[in-house]
C-alpha cells in the first residue's frame, strides 16, 4: 500500500495517493536478459534509440497496463526523475515495504565501523541475492485495499558480520559484484549478461548488434 511507503519517508518523497492505494513493485530476475531483453531487441531493432533495457521494461509494463482496460494504471520507472532532480520513487524502499527484498542500510549494523564515510544501502533478495533489479511501480489509483496485510521482507543477511561485509563490498568494491553473492543464490546473471552490464552504456549497443 502507498501508506507503507510514505510512512517511512520524508514528505518530499511521498507518493501522491491515498494511503490504502494498491501498488505493485516490479522486479527483473536474472532470466530477464534471455527471456525479455534479447527477444525485444530482435523485434524492435530499428526503434531502439535510448537504453535497450529501459525500453524493454517500458514495453512490457505497457503490455501489463493493456491487460487492465477498465482500470487506471500509473506506471513509474526506476530511471525517471522529477523536475527537482529527485527520483520519482525510491526503488529500494519500495521493494522493502512490499516485502520483495530486504533493504540493508547502515542503521542495520549495531557497531558501525565507517566513521564519517557515506555508506549506501543495498537490497538483497532471498532467492537471487543481488542478482536482480527493481524496475518500476504499477499504481492502481482507483483500487483501495484497507485490509491488505503487510509482509516483512526476508532478512537473509542476518548476522552483524555479514551485514558489514555486504555494505563494505557494495560501497567499496561494487564493480567486482561480490556483494551479489552475499548469500547462496538460486540463479545469477549469465556471463553474457554480466558482460553487458559491465560495459559502459554507450558501448552496449555494439554488444547487442545495434548501431547507435
Automatic annotation (TrEMBL):
Protein name per Swiss-Prot or TrEMBL: Cyanocobalamin reductase / alkylcobalamin dealkylase
Record carries keyword Ligase: no
Enzyme Commission code: 1.16.1.6, 2.5.1.151
GO biological process terms on file: cobalamin metabolic process
Keyword Oxidoreductase: yes
GO molecular function, one term: cobalamin binding
Catalytic activity, reaction form: 2 cob(II)alamin-[cyanocobalamin reductase] + 2 hydrogen cyanide + NADP(+) = 2 cyanocob(III)alamin + 2 apo-[cyanocobalamin reductase] + NADPH + H(+); apo-[alkylcobalamin reductase] + adenosylcob(III)alamin + glutathione = S-adenosylglutathione + cob(I)alamin-[alkylcobalamin reductase] + H(+); apo-[alkylcobalamin reductase] + methylcob(III)alamin + glutathione = S-methyl glutathione + cob(I)alamin-[alkylcobalamin reductase] + H(+); apo-[alkylcobalamin reductase] + an R-cob(III)alamin + glutathione = cob(I)alamin-[alkylcobalamin reductase] + an S-substituted glutathione + H(+)
Gene (UniProt): Mmachc
Entry superkingdom: Eukaryota
Subcellular location: Cytoplasm
Lineage: Eukaryota, Metazoa, Chordata, Craniata, Vertebrata
One Pfam family this sequence matches: MMACHC
GO cellular component, as recorded: cytoplasm
Amino acid at each position: 500500500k502507498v501508506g507503507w511507503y510514505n510512512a517511512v519517508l520524508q514528505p518530499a518523497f511521498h507518493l501522491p495517493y491515498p494511503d490504502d492505494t494498491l501498488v505493485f513493485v516490479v522486479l527483473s530476475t536474472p532470466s530477464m536478459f534471455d527471456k525479455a531483453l534479447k527477444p525485444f531487441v530482435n523485434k524492435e531493432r530499428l526503434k531502439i534509440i535510448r537504453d535497450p533495457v529501459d525500453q524493454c521494461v517500458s514495453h512490457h509494463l505497457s503490455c501489463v497496463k493493456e491487460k487492465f482496460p477498465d482500470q487506471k494504471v500509473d506506471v513509474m520507472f526506476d530511471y525517471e526523475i522529477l523536475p527537482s532532480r529527485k527520483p520519482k520513487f525510491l526503488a529500494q524502499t519500495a521493494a522493502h515495504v512490499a516485502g520483495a527484498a530486504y533493504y540493508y542500510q547502515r542503521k542495520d549494523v549495531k557497531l558501525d565501523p565507517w566513521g564519517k564515510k557515506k555508506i549506501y544501502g543495498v537490497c538483497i533478495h532471498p532467492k537471487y541475492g543481488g542478482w536482480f533489479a527493481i524496475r518500476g511501480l504499477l499504481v492502481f489509483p482507483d483500487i483501495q485495499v484497507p485490509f491488505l496485510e503487510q509482509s516483512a521482507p526476508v532478512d537473509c543477511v542476518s548476522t552483524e558480520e555479514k551485514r558489514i561485509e555486504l555494505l563494505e563490498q557494495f560501497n567499496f568494491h561494487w564493480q567486482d559484484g561480490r556483494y551479489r553473492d552475499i548469500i547462496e543464490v538460486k540463479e545469477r546473471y549469465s556471463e553474457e549478461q554480466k558482460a553487458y552490464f559491465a560495459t559502459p552504456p554507450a558501448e552496449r549497443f555494439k554488444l547487442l548488434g545495434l548501431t547507435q
